[in-house]
Amino acid sequence: MGLDEAVTLPRLVAGIGFRRATPPAEIVALLHRALGEAGLAPERLTAIASAADRTGEPAIRVAAAAFGLIPTGLDASALTAVDARVVTRSSRIEASRGVGSVAEAAALACAGPAARLLLPRIASAGATCALALFEDRPSVGSIPS
């Protein structure tokens, strides 16, 4: 194993669902809360993902920039492709988006085919957040923060 392989960390993705009127500060606070609940440092976050029609919204762009990231947009087919792995179900979101949770589906779809949910959806007044992890090598011990 080379040095590069020894220090490669798993890909950590935050999936975000939000109402259009949600302020960026609320999304940032929810991201910090999710990372705190998972016991991970903010620097570990490698991507922030949401439905493609929302990633142009100022709230998520400003929130992602607070972590030095640009939001990744996922189309409806990418979200529905992982819906069987979504653990939280909202009948309202299922009716409008075709998935149980935009946050969980976005996190899983962006993290990759072998990703797993590290933190199921948590919510604030106007947003939801889930964390997914993709490890391209076998896990040994716990995830370093």
Provide structural commentary.
The protein has helices at residues 3-7, 24-38, 58-65, 76-81, 91-97, 102-111; strands at residues 11-18, 45-51, 72-74, 116-123, 127-134. The chain is α/β, with parallel strands linked by helices and 145 residues long. It has a five-stranded mixed beta sheet. It is globular.
List keywords for this structure.
145 residues, alpha/beta, Nucleotidyltransferase, domain 5, 6 helices, 5 strands, 35% helix, globular
Task: Describe the protein's topology.
Layout: H1 3-7, E1 11-18, H2 24-38, E2 45-51, H3 58-65, E3 72-74, H4 76-81, H5 91-97, H6 102-111, E4 116-123, E5 127-134
Parallel strand pairs: 1-2, 2-3
Antiparallel strand pairs: 1-5, 4-5
Helix pairs in contact: 2-3
Oligomer: single chain
The fraction of residues assigned to DSSP E strands is 15-25%
Q: In whole angstroms, how far apart are the ends?
A: 22 Å
Mass-distribution shape: globular
Number of domains: 1
Helix content: 25-40%
Main sheet overview: 5 strands, mixed
CATH superfamily: CobE/GbiG C-terminal domain
Mean pLDDT over the full residue set: 90
Order of strands across the widest beta sheet?
3-2-1-5-4
Report a brief summary of the structure:
35% of the residues lie in helices and 23% in strands. By secondary structure, it is of the alpha/beta class.
